[in-house]
Amino acid sequence: MSLQRSQICIAVLVECTALLALSLTLPARADNPAQTQTLLATRQCAGCDLSNAGLVYADLRGADLRQANLRQANLSRANLEGADLRGAVLMGASLSGANLTGANLDGANLAAADLRYAYLTNATLQGTNLERAQLQGAIGLSNTVGTPEEFYKWAMADAEQKNYASAVENFTQTLARKADFAPAYLGRGLARLQVSDRAGAIADLKQADKLFTAQGDTKTALDIQKSIKTLETPPEQPKAGNGFGINLLSALGTLLQFFLP
Predict the structure, then answer these.
(1) Given 3-state DSSP classes, what are the helix, strand and coil percentages for the chain, each rounded to the nearest 5?
(2) The predicted structure's pLDDT at residue 145
(3) CA-based nearest residue to 72, from 103, 28, 40
(4) d(CA 123, CA 133)
């Protein structure tokens, strides 16, 4: 092969590589934008191809989306109350803050979907694939959805970011799925202390003490007992903010890290 032909082949190869890289970086578009318009106009789009569709804040109450392809669609804050999504593909879709009250999601594929702070009261999820779905803060979520380990990790992440109210909720979701999860009682007690719920914090720490003792972890139970005593007999003039809880949070907060699943 001549030098000139070699240079031409290399140039073509470089151009093809660049085009491939560009195609991978450009934002994906819906396969059929016309069907997106049909959905918005009629709310009837069973079996439609709506992949990557932009449907933020869309009013889709009662929409027929059976077997629709909504892969990676953006449905954030959309109103899907009472929508029929049976068998729909919603892999990687954003449903953050969406209203799915009373929606039928039976058999839908929601793998890796974002359902944070979505409303799921009375939604049906029979046979729904929720693998790796983000469920933090979802409202009305059935206790059969999600694992205690997932909610515990989310609670710990909330605590690290000082989002203590959300941490309390995620620890509560953990305990709704696993009532004897002692570290979750410990974590929720510390989070409640941070939101000025001292009575709730003491109650949670006492329950954690009982569970750790029953499970044979007497060392952790003893540390918790000391902390409970501190909480029940605080200094006469605690500092503003965390006050007497600062040393307690430092000691037990470090301890809590060891219980990450």
Answers:
(1) 45, 10, 45
(2) 86
(3) 28
(4) 16
Residue 31 has a pLDDT of: 55
Distance separating alpha carbons of residues 209 and 225, to the nearest angstrom: 7
Same domain, 167 and 137: no
Closest by Cα among 115, 209, 137, 260 to 128 = 115
CA distance 179 to 64: 38
Token look-up 């039928």 returns 104
The pLDDT tens digits of the residues spanning 48-84 come to 999 999 999 999 999 999 999 999 999 999 999 999 9
End-of-domain residue from the set 91, 124, 146: 146
- The three-class DSSP label of residue 9 is helix
d(CA 68, CA 49) in angstroms, rounded, equals 6
pLDDT given at position 231: 85
Domain that holds residue 73: 27-146
Q: Is the per-residue pLDDT at 214 higher than 90?
A: yes
CB atoms within 10 A of CB 20: 10
- How many degrees, rounded to 5, is the angle at CA 126 between CA 124 and CA 129? 105
